[in-house]
Amino acid sequence: MGKKYIVRLGEEERKVLKGLVSKGRASAQKIRRAQTLLNIDAEGPNWTDRQAAEAFGMRRNTVAEIRQRFVEEGLERALDRRQPDEPPRRRTLDGAGEARLIAMACGEPPEGRARWTLRLLAGQLVELAVVDGISHETVRRTLKKTN
Question: Which residues of the chain fall below pLDDT 50?
Answer without folding.
Answer: none
